[in-house]
User: What shape does this take?
Amino acid sequence: MNPALICLHEDALRITHPIFKFAPTGTKAIYVWDDEYLRRANYSLKRLVFLYETLCDLPVDVVRGATRTVVMAMTPAMLYVPATNNPSLLSLFAGISPATPLTFVDDDIFAVMEKTSEARRFFQYWSKVERSAFLHNGGALA
Amino acid sequence: MQLLPKNFDNRESLTDFVAALAPWAAGGPSHIQGGRQSAEKMLARVDPVAYGRTRNFGDGKITGLSPYIHHGILSLNEVRNHALSRCGEPVQITKFLQELAWRDFWQRLLSAHPEWAWDDIEPYKTGFSASDYAGVLPADIADGKTGVACIDAFIKELIQTGYVHNHARMYLASYVVHFRRVKWQAGAQWFLHHLLDGDLASNNFSWQWVASTFSHKPYLFNLENVSKYFGRQVDASPQNNQPLHASYETLQEQLFPNLSRSL
Ligand SMILES: Cc1cc2nc3c(=O)[nH]c(=O)nc-3n(C[C@H](O)[C@H](O)[C@H](O)COP(=O)(O)OP(=O)(O)OC[C@H]3O[C@@H](n4cnc5c(N)ncnc54)[C@H](O)[C@@H]3O)c2cc1C
Assistant: This one.
């Protein structure tokens, strides 16, 4: 069994993402170019070129293959993945756990909700986050 | 399993390489480049104060940051912090912060309700039911050959660049759903195919907002509005945009006859 592995995805392509601090120092990071996932997403070539250019700027290995196969072959003791709400990505990673333990790591927050009850319309939401939205780091971090 | 290359002599060879990886992917590259360096250049150009006054105009001081924010190349937090450093008083950038907040709002909604991504959240408030709308995007819309000059210009931009101004996205969505009576889902799928920032939450909930399945009323526009905001960018002449050349009252009656009848 190998140490931990960070697997980035199309929603979180930057080296300052909190995942790099959250995972143990020196954890290897990859992006899996998953043909089947991208084909199913039905992206135009311009979207794929933009994605690929972004990957070229990132200091991570870009590995082509099926996400599950690639990750399983690396047999990580723990897999770290940036949190996402994209159902296609979630089901992709759901296929990897429970064989490999998986931790989703949240991005920096934009704003803190003052009350946690759900806001259905934007201005209900805005009234709950307005104060925080005007603050550096949303007022949440040191 | 194959390690993919990350160094290319030029953009053309990178594009050729990606095209060979994904022979099923249609079209050509956008002039908008991916990567952190491009994102930082765009971020440096943001003018969050002028944004508030001009954002609705085709040539307004919008940022073009959405492809970078969608891919997490820039975080919303980072963009907000940068904007705060570019204003005298935070209140001057209220509009800009609110627009960033729209994204945060849509993301939170999708996390809480993934099933809302493709379902009508509420019924249409157009006097029609969902079954009155076509399920497939007509070919003339997909190809940008509707014969409505400004709409075709916006579609051309969508296809060629993968980026469209927010106001023009609203026009396109309203045209598809209300003028052509096509289900918002068909339009949303079409946008996700092309947009470099194509994002399930921002895109689909915005389509639902325009359609009225997630707002109090359908979003309508007319040629006068296009002419005011995009008159310098597109052909907004009445002769080349006939279906849009009417008052809001007339359009409301034409497009939503069942609503007028029930008044
Ligand atoms: C029908 C329709 C479909 C849309 N699809 C998408 C999409 O797939 N992806 C996407 O990111 N946005 C989408 N939007 C929202 C908005 O149009 C874009 O975020 C904006 O036009 C991006 O351009 P910009 O970066 O120059 O925005 P700016 O006006 O410069 O705004 C700065 C940032 O604020 C956020 N933002 C601004 N306006 C909105 C908004 N109305 N809703 C949510 N976030 C906003 C974006 O992250 C944007 O990058 C859609 C809007 C409509 C009406």
Summary: Chain A has two domains: 5-105, 109-142. The first helix of chain A runs from residue 19 to 22.
